[in-house]
Write a structure and sequence with these properties.
Layout lengths: L2 H37 L11 H18 L7 H6 L28 H26 L4 E6 L5 E4 L14 H6 L1 H5 L3 E9 L5 E3 L2 E2 L5 H11 L4 H7 L11 E8 H10 L15 H20 L18 H20 L8 H8 L4 H36 L1 H8 L1 H4 L1 H16 L8 H19 L4 H39 L16 H52 L6 H32 L7 E5 H11 L1 H7 L2 E5 L6 E5 H18 L5 E8 L3 E9 L30 H11 L3 E7 L2 E9 L1
Helix pairs in contact: 1-10, 1-13, 2-4, 2-7, 10-13, 11-13, 12-13, 13-14, 18-19, 19-20, 20-24, 21-23, 22-23, 23-24
Amino acid sequence: MDIKSKNFHKLAVIIICLIILLPSSAMMVVRPHYIKEKTGKDEFPFAYSSILEQLVTSSYVLYAEELLSKDADLTPYEIFCGSATPASGSGEKASPEMDSSEEYSDGSDADSQEEWVMDEVQDDFDNWNGEFAQMRPYLEYEVLNKETGKVLDTNYSRTGNNVSLYQSLDDIHTGSVLKDSSDYAFAAAIEYGENGNIEFTPFYSHEKSTASQVLNERAKSNPFSYLNDNWELNLSFQRPENRIYCFAITDTSLKALMEDYPDMIYTYNSSDASTEDLMVFFLTLSGMVAAAALLLPLIKPLHTGQEKIFQVPFELVMIISISVLSISLAVSANPYTMNQQSIYSVLTGIGWKEGSANAVQYFWGLLGWVMIFAVFYWTAGCIRMIFVMGPRQYIRERVFCYRIFPWLKNLWSRIYNGLLHINLKEDTNRLLIKIVLINFIILGFISLMWVWGIAALLLYSVALFFLLRKYFRKIQDQYHLLLEATNELAKGNLNGTIPEDLGVFEPFREEIDKIQTGFKKAVDEEVKSTKMKTDLITNVSHDLKTPLTAIITYVDLLKQPGLPEEEKKKYIDILDQKANRLKYLIEDLFEISKATSKTVTLNIDDIDIVSLLLQVKLELQDKIEAAGLNFRMNLPEEKIILPLDGQRTYRIFENLIVNITKYALPGTRVYIHAENTENHVKISMKNISASELDFSPAEITERFVRGDASRNTEGSGLGLAIAKSFTELQGGRLEVMTDADLFTVEITFLK
């Protein structure tokens, strides 16, 4: 940049300083004069302060002091809610008008109600007395008899001990104390007539009428109305009668009082004291400064508007500008804001001259306005870059939220998907706390936006509505998917699937799969049961029909005349064999029927299972030898005593060994092993099958199932089923296992 450009740029800086300084100086000049014109005098706003309320309560304290001087035993309840008055002079105590037998809705009786009300009145009076004790050294007061004009009490001693604050009642009505003494901040009086009626409440200060009206309203109010409202009482308030309470305070005393007790006297915001015109003037100046910031860069030789200070992120600009605008509007709207001249008071307090203190105070106020208008100029200069760069480029380069938009989008997607996939089986308190915390943070930022927070809250509510609508619609879609799946299941479609994500209902997918699996298993079991019933009828018919047919046939043969004796004997032996076969089959049917229905009566006794097994093997030795089998028994030498039914346990071993003699490969070895542990006894029987083991181990223990499907061997097909049923009836377990041609049966009894 050449010398000429630098000079033009310096000129631009000077112009900018003037643009900011001129409206700042205008506010410094216009605002104090406008406030003075608006309020009449640059003094404390009495009409909008707590002083008027404190003057009323001070009159109550002086009234109580007068009565207590006559009867020290009086209580505040008797003074303000009873019948004792200074007019009577009797000091007669009043009794509360409450029926001690009455019981209230909350369960308390009248006596406790009376004590509570008396305590509340005492607390209020103590507060009044405490405030008046703080104000008394600074406040000038006197109490007059309204009828005689006699001074009953006073602390006025400016010109003598016996000189009244007001020389006559007329002085009270005309406010002569202010006319004669210009150093008074205010003078006021509260005049009580007969029965405590408020007759006159003059207030003399720079506020001509407003303070008198507010003082009148305060004096007429019932300070115990909250007790009547909360407890539905009819508690009356006894004001002073025929008394005039006069108060006055000088400017010096008021300033000292406020410095000594800064929290005692406070002011209210009031629309009557606001200065809307001053706000309009301030906003007009602000608009002019902003317009200058937008137009000045159009003058090319000045080379302004492109400085780094105008390249701040958009969010920071908005936060600073909104904050400063809020503060400046508050200062402009309220004439009493920043009107205490604190710096002046501090500097004069440490010995500075008034002129120097005033100059510093003025400079400080001017600096504040310069900062405010500088922020407006800077804000307008930053916003101008939107038009210079174009909205799209400005958003990409200057809006910080846009830079973190992908991260925010990803964060929102995670939160949204997390809400869609809430695990209803787990505790959701942590998720709810996160949601409430996020909402709290958002509302916290909105609350910092002052009046603009309403618009932000409206936008947030609209956005929240659409987000919740989208969320609940997604939940509804997922619910309909779940409903369709359950309807398909109800129709009998056990192979239906749910291809889409169920979100919050995703745990139900596993439950639906379990239901489908359970239904399929139930259907398979039902099909199997139906098949077994069919096989049962077929097998029973076959097994009963075969010996019965043989019996009928041989009976017919025996009926033939001239049959040789040898033939008859042969036929009779066959009949005996078939009859026994039929008998055993029917007995097995009864046994399995009773075992299945659990109607078997067990005779439990201590049984030596080793001896019982050896006995069964010994009694079936003929069949074992006929089958050509070699039994290898590995049994403990000691006894194994178990509480079992001897007859049913014998039948278990008998059926298993008979089964081995029927189906084991002749000439092979059979292994019987007994294992005795601390908790159980296990007996295993292993043999090599003569035929291929092409059946399921779980099926072989079913009723009427044989190892040879052709049913050429003798047997009912109930041997293993009976053995398994009797084992389970006695709390044991029977398992069949196959490995190639190796057939194994294991029986386990718990001790």
